[in-house]
Amino acid sequence: MEPLRNDSGLLTPPQVVWQPRQKFRDRVWLHVVLFLLTVAMTTWVGADQYVAFLSDFTPPARLPLPIGALLVRGFWYSGTILAILGCHELGHYLACRYYDVDASLPFFLPFPISITGTLGAFIRIREPIPTKRMLFDIGIAGPIAGFLVALPALFVGVAMSHVVRVPADFTGFELGEPLLFKIAEKMLWGTIADPYSLNLHPMAFAAWFGLLATALNLFPIGQLDGGHISYAVLGRYSTYLTFVMIGVAIVLAGYFSASWIVWTGLMVAMLFMFGPRHPQVFDEHVPLDRTRLVLAGLALLMFILCFTPAPISELIRR
Fold it and tell me: Of the candidates 32, 52, 50, 31, which has an alpha carbon nearest to the alpha carbon of residue 42?
């Protein structure tokens, strides 16, 4: 850019026109591709789950239905889990749009070599969140939206499940039951005594995974939803809670279930990458209003209802 000369012939600095970056601009094709891949992976996993549901803990000699029919029934799982994860992330996204905080559309994460077919979903928040109220509302909007979908899916899925006798030589994995899952099972099926067990319909399994994802996101650590909420409530004192919950995660991995190892490792890595302190807002010392404190209590209740100390453990019957 060439310098300009004024009327007296003196040089003046170049004129720079500042243009603010446009918000909420995304490579939509990338989000669509990831979503379609996640649909494919979760539908395939759902079809496999439907075969297991029909077999009642006994490996089938052949497929009980044609592959096309199984893939259609795979939507029991994929439709449910994508609705839970999608509404969770859209809750964050719409809250960002409301406050004009730049954020991406949801990224869905396909993962074929797993019992879920997906690692979940996330959005990127691309600018600092200036106030505690905005941070709190954006942080809690996701868990509430996802929970409101997971709750009816849980009761419908458990109602579509059925009780069967577990074979004496059965070897497999046992899913830890969150408190809310136990409540739904008790209400719909009563007490189930050994050697019987509830054979989960794929929708019930999707709801179980949705509850687990909600609990994991509500861990009050770092950049997780629970970390945003705890910082908005406690301010800088939330750092101490972060260290406590890291210790809790290590205990869970060491004494309750090895399925916590990967999640604990991710949280520790996040601690080293981003530091233990939450990014500061300018009104850190201003307390939240009563309504938001009540919602923080609701978030704690959701965490308690969705949490299980042993999500997946090996079960061997002889």
Answer: 50
Confidence band of 91 (pLDDT split at 50, 70, 90): very high
- What DSSP state is assigned to residue 153? H
Q: Does pTM top 0.85 for this prediction?
A: yes
What span, in angstroms and rounded, lies between the C-alpha atoms of 90 and 87?
5
Q: What are phi and psi of 127, to 5 degrees?
A: -150, 155
- Cβ-contact 200, 184 below 8 angstroms: no
φ, ψ dihedrals at 16, nearest 5°: -110, 125
Distance CA 141, CA 258 (A): 30
DSSP, res 133: H
pLDDT digits (tens, 9 = 90+) for 174-223: 888 999 999 999 999 998 888 888 999 999 999 999 999 999 999 998 88
Pair 216, 84: CB distance under 8 Å: no
